[in-house]
Structure formats: structure tokens, C-alpha cells
Amino acid sequence: MKLLASTVAVATAAVLLVPSVPAQARAGASVTVADMAFSPGSVTIGLGQGVTWTFQDATAHTSTSDQAFWDSGTKSGGATYSRAFTSAGTFAYHCTFHSMMRGKVAVPVTVTGAPNTGWTFRWATKKGKGGITFDVQTRLGSGKWKPLVTGVTTTSKKFDPARAGSYSVRARTAKGGSRSGWSPTTTVPIS
Predict the structure, then answer these.
(1) pLDDT category, 162, cuts 50, 70, 90?
(2) Contact at 8 Å (CB) between 136 and 148?
């Protein structure tokens, strides 16, 4: 019984010593900031997941969104910065001190549903606030992109077209006058 109590005490102490890492970042991607570069330079994560940047250089760097969605502030010497991506788009970023250091985070739209119940396109995990809006486009096959919604704060929309085929969807996030790039394309066959 004493051995069991000791084992539980050691296990509990070990759990308490593990650094706290946001759940979104654990499920997303890691980017190393070292040798004057972001590595990898481009990552794709799921909607709602996150990215953790680890600044290994002694030299100060930042992870700063090109469209002002985030700014890590000055980091170095093993410091980290984590951010959850709650909306779809392709988000370019840079280091404010070193213009050659550039990266991208791509977040595609999620599609759920079935032929008999219809499809739902989700481009955000939470409603747009503080001037954040979303644009979503669809296309049939290799046809022209057409707006599904523009400038909305909603997170999703049911999509059940009358015409069967292979549909693609993409989205971008806007904040004020700035917009992310379009998200990677998600394709769904609708019959």
C-alpha cells in the first residue's frame, strides 16, 4: 500500500511539473525560429488548431502577421509563442527585424455531412468580432469561383446544391481593410 501511495505521489508531482501548453497548439504545428529562418516555412493545420513558434536564436525575432492578425512581440533564447487559428485562410507572417524571414499558416474549410442530409461548410470556430468577417467561395469542377457568402460574421453554412458534381470551397478572413489569402481548397463530391 505504501508503494502504491508513493507511486501516485511521484506521478502527481510529475504531472504538475509538465509545462502548460495550449491544447490547440499541441494539436497543430510547431515552427522553429533559428538561423534567421522559420522552419518549416509553411504549415497547414486544421480549423481551431494552433501553431507554436520556438525562438531558439539568441538574436531577437518576432512572428508578426502581414495583415495584423497577431504579433508575438520580441522573443529569443528558447521563448515560445502560441496562437490558435480559429478561422480559415492562408496567413502570411514575417519577422519585423529581418525582412527575409517569412512564413505561412494555411487553414482549410472543414466539410461535414452526407448526401442524404446535406453538407455544412465551416470556416470559423467562433463568430467574427471586432471587425473580423469572412468571405467564402465555391466552384463546380474547374469552373469560376462564385461567392457563397461575403463579409459575414457567421461561422458556417449549409450547402446543398441542386446540381451534382465535385465542388470546391475556400475562405479568407478579413480584419478591417486587411484580408488573409484564400485557404487551401477543400473538395467535396456531391451526388
Answers:
(1) confident
(2) yes
Q: Which strand (E) or helix (H) includes residue 3? A: helix 2-17
Q: Which domains does the chain have, with CATH numbers?
A: 22-107 (2.60.40.420), 110-190 (2.60.40.10)
- Residue that wins the pLDDT comparison between 21 and 82: 82
Residue pair 110/47 in contact by the 8 Å Cβ criterion: yes
Residue-wise pLDDT for 8-34, tens only, equals 333 333 222 222 334 434 469 999 999
d(CA 191, CA 2): 64
State residue 25's pLDDT score. 44
Closest CA to 38 of 110, 116, 92: 92
Q: What single DSSP character describes residue 107?
A: E
Give the H/E segment covering residue 26: helix 23-27
